[in-house]
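Hi team,

Below is the intake form for [acyl-carrier-protein] S-malonyltransferase from marine metagenome. Please confirm the fields before the structure is written into the shared record.

FORM ID: S-0412
PROTEIN: [acyl-carrier-protein] S-malonyltransferase
ORGANISM: marine metagenome
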Amino acid sequence: MGEDFYSNSEYAKEMYNNASDLLGFDLQEISFNGPDDILKQTQYTQPAIFVHSVIVDKFLKDKDIKPDAVAGHSLGEFSALVSANVISFEDALKIIKVRSTEMANAGKNSPGTMAAILGADDQQIKIICKQDGIVVPANINAPGQIVISGELKAVENAINTAKEIGVRRALALTVSGAFHSSLMSPARQPLLEIMNSITFNDANIPIFQNVSASPFTDATKIKNNIINQLENPVLWCDTILNLKKEGITDFYEVGPGNVLKGLNKRIFPESNTFTCNKLENLKACEVL
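The structure came back. Fields below:
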């Protein structure tokens, strides 16, 4: 991810080089060449996605495409913080370095996993999560599209329960931990310590945050929401619906994929989500 930006932009090269120096490993090498089994480990995935997202955000602003509000899905909140001038690129990366490392450690020390549940209603989700052991909704992504998170055996049993009650689809995800669940609690104190060492500014535009799907500009509240996000679900569906209430209909997906485009269309069919994962897609924004 991001190689086309790196090859065509001095700004992108500078960002990748700065990130590699701060992280202590060659981010561009892993981002561009993998291997996939390394890139998929959360301590590498998180900074790779973040740097890509910040670069795209800068490209859009240089084209005078500036947001009226920002939101990010899980890790994406950190690029949203940078976009809204709450923290600097470097400070965000310092937090992500700790966050990703400690989440990886939590995943090793308290093994867990996640699963996608498709086609279940709210009552069925409650039944699915009622297991011996920890299972909780982790990503409320779109109508009928929920990700659950928890202990290995409990999630396995939850998948079986989903199939038994006739849910359309339930499948295990390839992840390195039970993210957005209480199994991530060991990462909380290290995350809090690094965040307390960094100055958070009030946002210059509203940030719709994962834990409540509500807009915030106050630095203290934003900081607390980021910490709480670690063990609580991402309320993406409500986030898009609340942005809709504010009259926002166009979204720009700055990460390396296009998952949010699909989710947004399910949540808010009349909306437009422009995927900016490649330089060629970004150039298309010039004629919008």
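SUMMARY LINE: The longest strand covers residues 135-142.

Thanks, M.
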